[in-house]
Amino acid sequence: MPAPRIHHTVHETAVEAPADRVYALVRDAASWPQRFTPTVHVRREELGPRDERLHLWATANDEVKHWTSHRTLDPVRRRVIFRQEVCSPPVAAMGGEWVIEDRPGGTSTLTLHHDFAAVDDLPGNVEWITSATDRNSTTELQNIKALAEGWREPDELLFSFEDHETVHAPADTVYGFLRDADQWPHRLPHVARMELAEPSDGIQQMTMVTRAGNGSEHTTASVRVCFPAERTIVYKQVTTPPLMTLHTGRWTVADTGDGLRVTSQHTIRLNAAAIPAVVGEGATPAEARTYVREAVGGNSAATLALAKEFAEARHAD
């Protein structure tokens, strides 16, 4: 059989920031879920001083895809070469290179090259990959450009926090309560409605309507990646409330030897433009952080408390 055709794409943007700053953003793949809109989750393995393996989950053409890539880092030439080791259909093979070049006046050019082959070289598969690559590459370049050029953006807009609960029950029961989000409208008073789809093993796409204490409702959409062996669920909201531009999180169930430590972790970036309308005219980012911490943390604490009640009641039966 003839070898599948290799297709090429190139995406480029000028960045009003030094090349070293841009390279740092490309290099730091662990932070991509916070920086790149399509990236849901990244797991990194260090293979050597300049080599790493990335396990990535990301949206592509409104689908969730998972693949594994090998990356070689070249800080001197400011290049990052990548090649997918495990692809997700309709991708049969994919690789490429990030190239960052100096420009006059302390600016730079960021170029992203892709080469790929499609399963069975079908035109529909080629079109799907080309569309997804164009869409995600454009978004990633825009994200990097904005981050590099807005390097002095106040850190006060980005913050993280955790809530915990101690549970004396089997870990699988607690994990099951957190995983089975389709049951949350029956189990959690603050969840009014839930639509849950599982397009592939371990991946969930959910649209949730949450009811606030004042009776108002808001809708969020999330992608969740479940790791049952580790009893961990990571997620990213792909549709956030107006006050947020980013919300990622993690549920973990860990055996301490004296009960389970169940944790809900959140990382949130505030939408500065929405603070006056949502929190109040003249409200500061600190006040907005408190507002979000109480609202999101309140829901997390309620979920943890009900998970504890559910699991311990099952264990007592």
Descriptive report:
InterPro entries: Polyketide_cyclase/dehydratase, START-like_dom_sf. This is Polyketide cyclase/dehydrase. It comes from Streptomyces lydicamycinicus. This protein is an alpha+beta fold and 317 residues long. It has two domains: 7-149, Alpha-D-Glucose-1,6-Bisphosphate, Chain A, domain 4, CATH 3.30.530; 155-316, 2-Layer Sandwich (Alpha-D-Glucose-1,6-Bisphosphate, Chain A, domain 4), CATH 3.30.530.20. It contains seven helices and 14 strands. The chain has helices at residues 19-27, 32-35, 123-149, 171-179, 184-187, 275-278, 285-316, and strands spanning 7-15, 39-46, 51-60, 63-74, 79-86, 91-103, 107-118, 158-167, 191-200, 203-211, 217-227, 232-239, 244-255, 260-270. The strands form two sheets. It has a seven-stranded antiparallel β-sheet with strand order 1-7-6-5-4-3-2. Strands 8-14-13-12-11-10-9 form a seven-stranded antiparallel β-sheet. Helix 4 (171-179) packs across helix 7. It is globular. The protein starts with 6 loop residues before the first strand and ends with a helix. The model has no long low-confidence stretch (mean pLDDT 94).
